[in-house]
Amino acid sequence: MILLKTQEEIELIRDSARLLGKTLAEVGRHICPGVTTAFLDKIGEQYIRDNGGIPLCKGYEGFPAAFCISVNNVVVHGIPSDDVFIKEGDNVSLDCVIELNGYVADSAYTFTCGEATPEMQRLLKVTKEALYIGLDKCKAGNRVGDIGHAVQQHCEKNGYSIVRELCGHGVGLKMHESPNVPNYGVPGTGALLKEGMVIAVEPMVCMGSKNVVFSREDGWTCRTKDGKPAAHFEHTVAIGANGPDILTTFDFIEEQK
Ligand code: MF3
Ligand code: CO
């Protein structure tokens, strides 16, 4: 069942989403050579709790941390660790879900530590563009396949590939609600988008081939099979009658660059 949210509920999700945007910026500004992903997780968790939020990834199906922190060839679901040290040029995806006053927002942003190679910068640029191109399809009357198709087209036309194993999802009262929102698809197919639906759109894009492997040790870490880098950007968005109402924001991140 796909829940429709009232305008009041959407405003409450926006409050949660705003705190999440600030949180990603706060953690992002601590990314520098030598810092561990466990340290980043710790300051982020503290920031969320200090502001009255709850980090929902922590304890979700046994996930041990507040953030998924995924470096270079880790696509998503990287577990923060005292043994993972960030170095100059790394790409670092921060993915976090928070609950504030009972409402849930989900967002991810891929940062670079210092100067990234032009190749890496292009991957991040195209992945972020694909997110916004997908978000543009988030209006009542379109279908989930319209979003996926738009995201896929943009990435593939730029020579990149789309992960198939994971996708976006409904969100707002829980972390994962219906429907699934794949980053690939056929226009005019899939669930019908209605005003008041709230979903997370989250392209996971590989520089090389689309195949991924999940860690046998921890069950979470999702890496590219070919070892090439990947990127991940995610927004929580409400479906509007005439277009998307993007609830999470990268403004706090981008204003500090
Ligand atoms: N934020 C993620 C998503 O988009 C990751 C959830 S996995 C978790 O669904 F275990 F870390 F919660
Ligand atoms: Co998500």
Describe, in plain words, how this protein is organized in 3D.
The chain has helices at residues 7-28, 37-50, 118-135, 144-157, 251-254, and strands at residues 54-55, 67-71, 74-76, 91-100, 103-112, 161-162, 168-170, 177-181, 198-201, 204-206, 212-214, 222-224, 230-232, 235-239, 244-246. It is α+β, with helices and mostly antiparallel strands and 257 residues long. The protein has a 5-stranded antiparallel sheet. Strands 1, 2, 4 and 5 form a 4-stranded antiparallel sheet that branches. The longest helix has 22 residues, at 7-28. The N and C termini lie far apart (41 Å). It binds 2-amino-4-trifluoromethylsulfanyl-butyric acid and cobalt (II) ion. The site of 2-amino-4-trifluoromethylsulfanyl-butyric acid has 11 residues, from β4.
